[in-house]
Amino acid sequence: MPSTAAAPTVSSLTADQYGINIDVTVMQCIVSLQLDDGDKTIRVSEHLVGDTTGAIILKTTQDVQAGSRLQIHNGYTQVIDGYLRLIADTIEPSSEAPVQVNTSNNLSLNKLVRRN
User: Fold this and answer.
1) DSSP states of 3-60 as a string?
2) What would the CATH number be for the domain defined by 12-109?
3) Does the predicted TM-score (pTM) go above 0.70?
């Protein structure tokens, strides 16, 4: 029986979520670093991505282009230095057209505080 649950939106993301499958539009590359790990070099980049509900910083090792629409499979959220990030290892181009990203609701700008 197919699931009737709505696809997640950027604004619905919270800390420590796993198994996230979401479509986002890439706004811009924020930073890209090459890290040497012994015999291999790994490129890690952060991009501002989002949908019509909000924006978030995506951390990935895959190359993505500004203006493209992506399907993220099995991603997860993580709080890094108090700020929410979307982490994705499996990214594919989406057949959908890019959408206008709601940058006024940038989840990565909100400082999060963990309570014990």
Assistant:
1) --PPPP-GGG--TT-EEEEEEEEEEEEEEEEEEEETTEEEEEEEEEEEETTEEEEEEE
2) 2.40.50.140
3) yes
Compute the residue count for the chain: 116
Q: What are phi and psi of 11, to 5 degrees?
A: -65, -20
As a whole number of angstroms, the distance between CA 11 and CA 84 comes to 12
Q: CA-CA distance, 54 to 76, in Å (whole number)?
A: 16
Domain boundaries, the chain: 12-109
Question: pLDDT tens for residues 35-50?
Answer: 887 888 889 999 999 9
Q: 95: which residues sit within 8 A by CB, 6+ positions away? A: none
